[in-house]
Design brief:
The protein is an alpha/beta fold and 462 residues long. The protein is 54% helix and 10% strand. The chain is built from 19 helices and twelve strands. The protein is globular, with a radius of gyration of 29 Å. It starts with a strand and ends in a 5-residue tail after the last helix.
């Protein structure tokens, strides 16, 4: 697919990834056509955009340059109509269209507090920016479009910076984001949204004096330039920082991603992993129960899922093992501890949902069994739509709201592949595994891990 890039001086990349070299006027004409892909543009509009006039001579010159573009791009790429010409390529083949789409998606993710997705989408969109849009053109219509794109870029940078700040979990995270805050503010030193984010980040890093100094410097510069005080939002945030208002801390502040660590990667469970991630990340289900017989890898899959999505949740991941979930009141007390809450069980049953439900959080209950745990799950689900629960157990809980993901033992072929991968990961090599040993493992990942260890130590014939 031929791609046309207008966020900077125009460039064209052919299907075979060759950069096409066009004459200056042909580049300018293509840039005009690319401003409205799939739409017919009047000949007069195109001529005026190129030369500032649309007399007979210019219209004839336009036909010549259209012919040159067709020779370079293919005749079917530019269609002729009664009134003008139309660039017949998909919108996604033009970087401006991709830029607008990625920024819109990123800003939508930010609205819904999907900060990790916002960071990814906005960064991908901003990476498309190579310089002044439509730099080859000077006509008034394109100048207005250029200004609009420039402001969209600034707002995208603001949104990306906000998403980065909201995902700060501790002072160390804050210190790592402060240089980006300073860089963005230096680029647009009178943009209030950027100075507010820098002040919040400095406060999270424990640098309250620096945050106050930044506020004072900004106020002084605004007064010197325009002669008026900064806006009311800035004044309010500055006052709240002086009071050390905890509500200004990032959305992810003091959250953790508590997930068991494994030395080997998850293998042979890609489908189950991807399904669970999709269901929980996008809140398609709020209670996902991973079930299967002992040793089938329920905890391992749950850990991989939590690791994948937990870093993108402002509330992180709270992981409770089998000993903790066996007693509902103890489980609730453990969750309360992560929220800095204390009190009797009757009190915590009211307070935990209220605090837990303020931000997107995943709670994992590993090794659930019995009827008693249902009470704990019910309390967690009462936290509201921002809290998702992932459980593992031999059987489903039997709640109406649950979605079951049942893990089956691996096939013989998949079992052998898993053993080979585990051996390779642990620094060994095996091109064949004894069939009898595989049969005894019954396709259970836990038994297959032991088999891989035996292979490394020479205890099983390979």
């Amino acid at each position: 697919m031929t791609t046309v890039n207008v966020l900077g001086h125009l460039s064209v990349v052919a299907d075979d990834e060759r950069a096409l070299v066009l004459a200056p006027q042909s580049r300018r004409l293509l840039a005009l056509l690319a401003s409205s892909p799939g739409q017919s543009l009047d000949r007069e509009f195109l001529a005026e955009g190129l030369w500032g006039a649309a007399d007979t001579a210019h219209l004839r010159s336009l036909q010549v340059h259209i012919s040159h573009l067709r020779s370079a791009l293919g005749r079917e790429v530019i269609e002729s109509g009664d009134q003008g010409y139309c660039l017949m390529i998909e919108g996604e083949a033009i970087d401006e269209v991709r830029f607008r789409s990625l920024i819109a998606d990123g800003q939508e993710a930010l609205v819904h507090a999907h900060y990790d997705d916002a960071i990814t989408l906005l960064a991908e969109g901003l990476d498309l920016w190579r310089g002044e849009p439509y730099a080859d053109l000077t006509c008034d219509a394109i100048s207005a479009r250029r200004a609009g794109l420039r402001e969209l870029r600034f707002s995208a940078e603001d949104a990306h910076l906000r998403a980065r700040v909201e995902m700060v979990r501790n002072p160390s995270d804050a210190e790592s984001v402060i240089p980006l805050c300073a860089h963005r503010l230096a680029e647009q030193p009178f943009r209030e949204s950027r100075v507010i984010l820098q002040m919040r980040c400095l406060m999270a890093a424990g640098r309250l004096t620096d945050a106050v100094n930044v506020a004072a410097d900004f106020r002084r510069h605004v007064l010197a330039r325009v002669g008026i005080e900064p806006g009311p939002e800035f004044a309010e945030v500055a006052a709240r920082i002086m009071r050390r208002d905890p509500a200004l801390m990032p959305a992810a502040w003091r959250s953790r991603v508590d997930v068991p660590a494994y030395l080997t990667p998850l293998v042979q469970r890609d489908g189950e992993h991807e399904l669970a991630v999709a269901l929980l990340k996008w809140n398609s289900v709020r209670l996902l129960c991973v079930t299967g017989e002992p040793g089938v890898g329920k905890t391992r899959v749950a850990a991989a899922v939590a690791e994948t999505i937990g870093h993108g949740f402002p509330g992180g991941v709270t992981w409770l093992g089998q000993e903790q979930v066996s007693d509902p009141d103890r489980a609730l007390a453990c969750i309360a501890q992560t929220l800095d809450l204390t009190g009797p069980p009757s009190d915590l049953r009211q307070r935990v949902p209220a605090v837990l439900g303020r931000r997107r959080t995943l709670v994992v209950l590993d090794g659930v069994e019995g009827e008693a745990v249902k009470r704990c799950v019910a309390v967690l689900l009462s936290s509201g739509p921002l809290v998702s629960v992932l459980t593992t157990g031999v059987q489903r809980l039997g709640l109406a709201s649950e979605h079951e993901l049942h893990l089956r033992p691996l096939s013989t072929e998949a079992s052998e592949d898993l053993v080979r991968e585990l051996v390779r990961t642990m620094g060994g090599f095996s091109d064949h595994v004894d069939t009898e040993a595989l049969t005894e493992a019954r396709g259970l990942p836990l038994a297959l891990e032991h088999l891989a260890i035996d292979l490394l130590s020479g205890g099983v014939r390979a």
